[in-house]
Design a protein that fits this description.
This protein is α+β, with helices and mostly antiparallel strands and 124 residues long. 27% of the residues lie in helices and 13% in strands. It is built from four helices and six strands, in the order E-E-H-E-H-E-E-E-H-H. The chain has a two-stranded antiparallel sheet. The protein has a two-stranded parallel sheet with strand order 3-4. Strand 5 and strand 6 form a beta hairpin. The longest helix has 11 residues.
Length: 124
């Protein structure tokens, strides 16, 4: 059996990890090396971008708010296509949902706009 690495070390991004190996409610397992998640990708170094290219990651789906995307745009790597897909509403220039990220995670699945954003993402 192949050995997989959950956390991918990048100098310019926090918490970049492979979502492979998780089992869904139907007993199906997510394949390794197919879907990753991370925080903000606006500070990726050239070395980071080379690593993402080497991993053959072709899509960057940015789920942050429009204002966050504009303030700190993701730095793309060779062969990557950016899809902007904000999953929660904004009021003015700030996200309307949270005071801290942990609060947001507890609330996001109850908000229709966020659910719609996640639905759009899963159909990609």
């Amino acid at each position: 059996m192949a050995e997989y690495q959950r956390v991918i070390q990048l100098a310019g991004a926090l918490n970049f990890r492979d979502l492979g190996g998780y089992v869904n409610q139907h007993g199906q397992t997510v394949s390794w090396g197919k879907i990753y998640r991370a925080a903000d990708l606006s500070l990726l170094t050239q070395s980071d971008r080379d690593k993402l290219s080497w991993l053959q990651i072709k899509h960057d789906v940015d789920l942050r708010s429009t204002s966050e995307q504009e303030r700190n745009p993701d730095r793309l790597w060779s062969g990557a296509k950016l899809t902007k897909n904000p999953i929660y509403p904004e009021q003015g220039n700030t996200p309307a949902l949270f005071g801290t990220p942990s609060i947001w995670w507890r609330k996001v699945h109850h908000i229709p706009e966020a659910a719609n954003g996640f639905a759009r993402f899963t159909r990609m």
